[in-house]
């Protein structure tokens, strides 16, 4: 990239609970971006040879820093994107747990693995790739970053972050956390830039690979640029997760969990349950219980610890959700509860449930990002599976049945990156996370996640001591 300076403009962050401006941040100019990438490369050259024990120690320090500052970090996320303070604190704690996981298990995930062959010795080694560009969304502003950065740093890579504009304050605090934890200068940096800068940054030869969590459009654009330059990518995109309730399910338990599965994080989660597919025999009972539990939600100021549902993060997102609900109702859906903006400051939308939703309706076909749920009637088990798979997305899914063996058999037929039987879809550092179809590709978390951004290198030492074991050249 050229080192010339461009005109600086500001990014404004807005409190979605009030609609008022919180802060303004100057964008980085091209010279500052160049300098950041140069620091990342320099840091990588030293960090890649840093012993595992030291990398683990830095992650443990990051975990401690997250816990030490948990309340102030959570308050910032609540102000910037509107999640409830209780959920924000839980998110910061989850980041600490993720750092702890890779500090403890990263060395084993990255250890040389013997691979006997025709050689006198052969093994597989996991070498870092270089500078990882992380392009992240606003809905889990800490966790989305840490679940990518912790394994990448443990593997010996360095990271530059391009975060969503509305959580710029959070993005800068994340850099400060890694700095306070003792990571070398340049190992983790936040770029305050617009989306229009990303094509040039992805193409920059100093970027080795890209991970993105975000919209399908953003993922497609980044993948196209990265593909042009033959760079590895991992994409975690949208989701329209099915929540199947079979006739033999514990309907009350399924309905109670459905509220958390749909309305957690103000309904703004890629893996939130969005399409509730219920067998006819229990449809009415489930819908009634779902409405009952939903109407117990306390919506209001997200900084109040008694609040269980806050605002939508941006006004345009509330407009889009309201439009999806209206189009679904116009097409024949039945409003069970909610369905309107709240007449108050901020970007609030009432928790909404629409029944009698069918394929072809907006809330079935499109991803809904906010506090609105679509409930669909299924004739039987096979029809429920057909409806669940009738989506361009395949991120997560939920299935409720008292017969666990049946649940496991159905899981094998569902087109999604995860299936949670009698529970709610959630990410866990111990389990791989990612989707299929238009929900993206690649995996984060667990050993699978840390291996996404490494060179899986075969090391062969010969000649073989066993002539019979020789292998012809390719």
Q: Overview of this structure, please?
A:
By secondary structure, the chain is α/β, with parallel strands linked by helices. It folds into two domains: 10-237 and 439-459, Aldehyde Dehydrogenase, Chain A, domain 1, CATH 3.40.605.10; 241-421, Aldehyde Dehydrogenase, Chain A, domain 2 (3-Layer(aba) Sandwich), CATH 3.40.309.10. Helix content is 39%, strand content 20%. It is built from 15 helices and 20 strands. The strands form five sheets. Strands 12-13-14-11-10-16-17 form a seven-stranded mixed beta sheet, with helices on both faces. Helix 12 links the parallel strand 13 (352-355) and strand 14 (372-378). Helix 2 packs antiparallel against helix 4 (85-110), helix 3 packs antiparallel against helix 6 and helix 4 (85-110) packs parallel to helix 5 (143-154). The longest helix is centred in the first third of the chain and has 26 residues, at 85-110. Mean pLDDT is 96; it is low at 2-6.
